[in-house]
Design a protein that fits this description.
343 residues, alpha/beta, Rossmann fold, 6-stranded mixed sheet, 4-stranded antiparallel sheet, 34% helix
Length: 343
């Protein structure tokens, strides 16, 4: 067992006129190796919940366990927890602060007390995993495009070798190509390293395509907790709380209203395509057919230079920095606990 919440509650402004429940008696268990989708309208408690998972927020009441240990027990090592449960914020600027990309990615491993050799090796490995080559190492993270900043933020967490990776809207503001590349790399990490992934998203198509399990939050409470296929059967109830189902769900329902006998559990474009081809007596493309519940294969993320990562469609600038792996000693390390929490 990886994460377990028992009657978890969080109240903002407790005891004041502005008191507001962000979480109400949330109970859930997240097993090792799962790919979790977490959805809900703005203000539903999604971000508050995930910040409890690595101890950035402390519950007003209730208990939270990581690998069977109560993280609120006296003497529990929160620093160790945050190295095992990595959180990538929605806005990468909230966790980028070093003078260059390489130093930023080195920050987490250095705070783990690793040797300089191991720090450098982890940083190189993490940057390669997110498609950033040596030309980016000496560049300021604040001069990169939106998509590139997200890659640096993800690399900074991956360099600590977490067991759980939490991503809060990692594709917000990206163009479709940048979104697919980021999610493809996340799926690759899940598949190859059996890493537990918790993906917070407003895209129903993304969670339908990648998640094994879908948790729906509403007004601080857990509303649904099931497979994406079963959750999206309740699309009318999701609409009532400001959410929706994947667009394919509505197409399938429209076809059924016209008397076409198509499966109403289809939630991805590939599944709907294959079902429609069979209805007209044709076979799906060879080697491209997906079984129910099977995920589309994720390709390795290409080098950043091949995508802009910008939501406005502007092309990425041709930025070339100093090549070669810099000295991991980098900038002076701050003892601030706030900076530790950013990783």
């Amino acid at each position: 067992m990886s994460i377990k919440a028992v009657n978890l509650c969080h109240v903002y402004g407790q005891g004041t006129a502005l008191e507001q429940y962000a979480l109400k008696n949330v109970n859930l268990e997240i097993e090792d190796g799962q790919f979790i989708g977490l959805i809900g309208h703005t203000g539903s408690g999604k971000s508050t919940l995930i910040q409890h998972f690595n101890g950035l927020l402390r519950a007003t009441s209730g208990e939270l366990y990581y690998n069977g240990e109560n993280i609120y027990a006296p003497g529990y090592d929160m620093k160790k927890l945050r190295s095992k449960v990595g959180l990538v914020f929605q806005y990468p600027e909230h966790q980028l602060f070093e003078v260059d990309v390489f130093s930023d990615v080195c920050f987490g491993p250095r705070n783990q007390g690793l040797s300089e050799e191991e720090i450098r090796a982890r940083a190189v490995e993490a940057l390669e995993q997110v498609g950033l080559d040596e030309s980016y190492y000496r560049q300021s993270p604040f001069e990169l495009s939106g998509g590139q900043k997200r890659r640096v933020a993800i690399a900074g967490v991956l360099a600590m070798h977490p067991e759980v990776l939490i991503l809060d809207e990692p594709t917000a503001g990206l163009d479709p190509k940048g979104r697919d590349e980021i999610l493809g790399e996340i799926e690759k990490l899940h598949r190859e390293r059996h890493m537990t992934i918790i993906l917070v998203s407003h895209s129903m198509e993304d969670v339908a395509r990648y998640a094994d399990r879908l948790i729906v939050m509403n007004r601080g409470e857990k509303m649904f907790d099931d497979t994406p296929r079963n959750v999206f059967r309740h699309y009318k109830e999701l609409e009532a709380i400001g959410l929706a189902a994947p667009q394919v769900t509505y197409i399938v329902q429209a076809l059924r209203k016209e008397g076409i006998p198509i499966d109403d559990s289809l939630i991805t474009v590939e599944e709907a395509r294959d079902a429609i081809l069979r209805l007209v007596g044709k076979e799906p493309p060879a080697g491209d057919e997906l079984q129910a519940g099977e995920k589309a294969p994720a390709e390795s993320m290409p080098p950043v230079g091949e995508e802009s990562g910008r939501s406005d469609g502007a092309e990425a600038e041709d930025e070339s920095g100093a090549s070669g792996v810099p000295d991991a000693a980098g900038a002076e390390v701050s003892d601030s606990s706030e900076q530790e929490d950013r990783k």
